[in-house]
Amino acid sequence: MIVHLRLSTPADMTDAVVSGLVEDPRVTDVTLVRGAGVDPPRDVVEADVAREAASDVLGTLTRMGLGSRGGISMTETTVAPCESARELERQAVGSPDDAVIWHLVEREAEKASSPTATYLVFLCIATALASIAVITDSAVLVVGAMVVGPEFAVIAAICTGIALGRWRLAARSAATLLWTFAFAIVVIMLAALLAASLDVVSAADVTRPRPQTGFIWRPDLWSFIVALLAGTAGVLALATDKTSAMVGVFISVTTVPAAGNLALGLAIFDTAEITGSAAQLAMNLAGMIIAGVLTLVVQRLVWRHLSDAMRHRSSERRLRAQLGPSPTSPAAVAPREH
Known about the structure:
Elements: E1 2-9, H1 11-23, E2 27-33, E3 43-50, H2 51-63, H3 66-69, E4 71-77, H4 83-91, H5 102-112, H6 117-136, H7 139-148, H8 152-163, H9 167-197, H10 203-207, H11 221-239, H12 246-250, H13 255-268, H14 271-323
Antiparallel strand pairs: 1-3, 1-4, 2-3
Helix pairs in contact: 5-8, 6-7, 6-9, 6-13, 8-9, 8-14, 9-13, 11-14, 13-14
């Protein structure tokens, strides 16, 4: 597993960029085409880097100013077994499956912090499904509402902003999460009021005993524990690009079902339903954010330590290469004549 970099470099930066890539043993297949860029006129540099080292290499390129004066694009790919790929794996520290490319995590957080019309539609549909699940006491519909709900991407954006010290990103994401949930709840509340006026839904449908769905407005300690576990799993899956695990996260916490129950509680103005649903929603969100932030902080500390180890190892190899074999090494000891 490697990351392919395509760099658009101003002519005065090209030599420094190429030199830095060539000297890094975690980078291979460095190519340069001078003057390949037409508008604006730039050189093009391409290279393959071990996934474990991608975040470190990208950070170096960004600090050099390439992010502002040039261009950086990347593609994650899996290469056929070859000696250069094996050498990259030997030079890198850690497993590519565990590697976090922080630039990608931050980019996804930026995208999620600004909701789209599609996001709002999915959230409203999920909240509507949750409200129907409450009325019909259907656990299957509760699961459906959880899967359809798109809110975890915004929750992960909040966690990313806090963990990386991007406070504007965290604030923008938190504002997005709050107003989009409020919007969906109001929409479903108005729909419930309309349904009640047409005698399609009654207060008894919401307040009657609901053995299959009553848990979504009765928060307890287990609700918070599940939210912590789901937040940890969700952020870990997003950071390491294990999206297959996200379905389990979606059906673990009752954020959207609590929002659907809250909308119905507001429509019939039942205090117990309102307070219970609001508490469940707040507890789930808080648990996932706390766990998500802690997960990202731990990952960042671990990979910072591994990056330091990789840089130290690379420096030692370059120093040994410059000095040549030591006087006591087998290669440096001349054979004795008999």
